[in-house]
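Lab notebook, bench 4. The sequencing result for the construct came back, and we need a structural model before the next group meeting so we can plan mutations. Quick request posted to the team channel:

Model the 3D structure of this chain.
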Amino acid sequence: MADLIPFPLNSRARLVRSIADDLERIHGPAANEFWRTRIAGIVNELRSTGLSDETIRTEIYALQDAVMAEMQFRSAVQAGSNLSA
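Done. Here's the predicted structure in token form:
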């Protein structure tokens, strides 16, 4: 049976932007620790809803992709504004 995800992580704009905001300020080992801690909390929340490990893994990978896309978008916007300045 497939798990129903009513609010997929990668569609939660506030969550994606919040993580991207934090990762823009934190670098190196501290960023790795932040990511691991934040994801562990999200995984615990998802487990408490009864989702399967496979579904949770898929959700986390989709969230990771969304955060990376947000950071790449911000970088491209910043690069574009630097070119026009």
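Residues 45 and 51 are 10 Å apart (CA to CA).
Will bring this to the meeting.
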